Amino acid sequence: MASASPEKTRWMRGPSTPLRGALLGLLLERPGHGGDLANRLAARLGETWRVDTNDVYRLLEQLEKTGLAVSRDEPKRNNHRRTHLVYYPTEESSAALTLWMETLLPREPVRLGLQAKLSVAREEDAHRLLAALRAYERECLMLAQLVTPNDGRGRSWTALCLDCTRDAVYAQLEVEITWATRTRQRINEHLERSQ
Amino acid sequence: MTPLLSFLNVSKRYPDGGRDILVLDRVSLEINAGVSAGVLGPRRSGKSTLLRLAAGIALPDSGIVSFEGRDVGQMAGSERGRLLRGAIAFMSASDWRATAGESVVDHVATSLGSEGLTMREARRRATRVLDRVEIGAAGAEEPTTSLSQTERARVMLARALARQPKLLVLDEPALLPSLGERDRFYALLRDAAQESDITLLMASEEMSALQGVGVLMSICDGEVISPQARGTVVPLHGGRRAGAERSWQ
What we know:
Chain A contains eight helices and three strands. Chain A is mainly α. Chain A folds into two domains: 6-102, Arc Repressor Mutant, subunit A; 112-194. The longest helix of chain A has 38 residues, at 157-194. Chain B has one domain: Rossmann fold (3-Layer(aba) Sandwich). In chain B, the strands form two sheets. In chain B, strands 6-7-8-3-9-10 form a six-stranded mixed sheet, with helices on both faces. Chain B has a four-stranded antiparallel sheet with strand order 2-1-4-5. In chain B, helix 3 crosses helix 4 and helix 3 (104-110) runs parallel beside helix 6 (149-162). The two termini of chain B are 29 Å apart. The chains are: A mainly alpha, B alpha/beta. At the A-B interface, helix 7 and helix 8 of A face helix 7, strand 9 and helix 8 of B.
């Protein structure tokens, strides 16, 4: 892990750091207005991230406040009478992206709601927990269905990176489903023993 | 519309020491023609049992498995055998059998024995389908004993596709060491099924092997779970936990 001054990693604090980092990378590839960057972000990360355009505007403003992006009011390409904000990287952007690539991100809480329920569940809640776990499994399966499949032809670096992103989603969802099924199994075994 | 395959309250037990293990507990689901469905589950979760019942290789202890609206359990053994050689194809990587001296194209062509084709016609169809799974003319003449793991998986797929089944059931068909080759195998499988209007039902321990399926299910502890998707796979509530499901809603 890189040892960087707190000043340089300040922009990585708070929620949505992965999205800010990804937006920074997209800006370095090509400047763009908020809508364009939101579309590119959604295409790059895939449907499971559920990127919200309003969030993208907010994150771009945050990047600008921390000096990693700069916006200019420019005429729209198809309507020169109207303008929109186009975001550009700054001199700091590239080094900031490099630092983000080298920085270990904190572990994010997963299935927090279910864990919280489990932590305080009474035995009489067993069936409610089972139903909640099934609902969670369905949600994970539904998200996995949204992932665009790999055609197995990718030879470029970009294709490889997309494959790795896809694998990350599958691996995370697989772990979640495994956990949910094991938890259901434990509860069922307990219920059968107590009958 | 009659589903291509349906399970109605299907249960299956296996003896384990002095007691029975309930592998499937009153599972109900329907798979319509043209759908691709994936079953995700860890080892010994019951996914192979589910597939063997779907293919008519095994019969349930209770409940009904129907193919095109007909109860498979009520069919005579010979009729079930014909089904498995015709409308249903079953593929599992562990079922690979190579005969010394046999070429790849002959390996695929001989599987068409019950189709009423001449050997020449069978070889022509085998060549076409081998080409579909990216095994060219040179590869088709290679002996089956010289094939790599990836090539074996593709030849097995070709063998299953050559019979032009309505339902292709695949149990962990390609746990290949190369991730790129594995991705390509599944892409070929999906494309071939779509082109030929074949319904897919496949199972794996790995979610990435099931990428691109229309409906993804998970199986564990005798129960099948799937996102509700009307018109494709419709898991119907049932079994010992149905009451729990209702009480939560």
